[in-house]
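hi! just following up on the protien thing from before. the input was this:
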Amino acid sequence: CGNASVVISQVYDYLKNRERPIETSDEELLVAYVCDMAGLTEHGSSVYSAWLSPKGNELLKEMEANEL
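and the predicted 3d structure came back as:
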């Protein structure tokens, strides 16, 4: 159902770019909250400046190894 490759690509881009604050687009904010809820990121007071959790780091490495 839908286009999973687009979602995977958006999650990959989000995880890969955690050194910068997120944009204010609704799409990126939704990805930020989903990644936070999945335990892929951690944050202080705001999801806008999240960083990768150990689980997120592991997933990013797997995605890069599989060239996603």
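Residues 45 and 51 are 12 Å apart (CA to CA).
The chain is about 55% helix and 5% strand.
cheers
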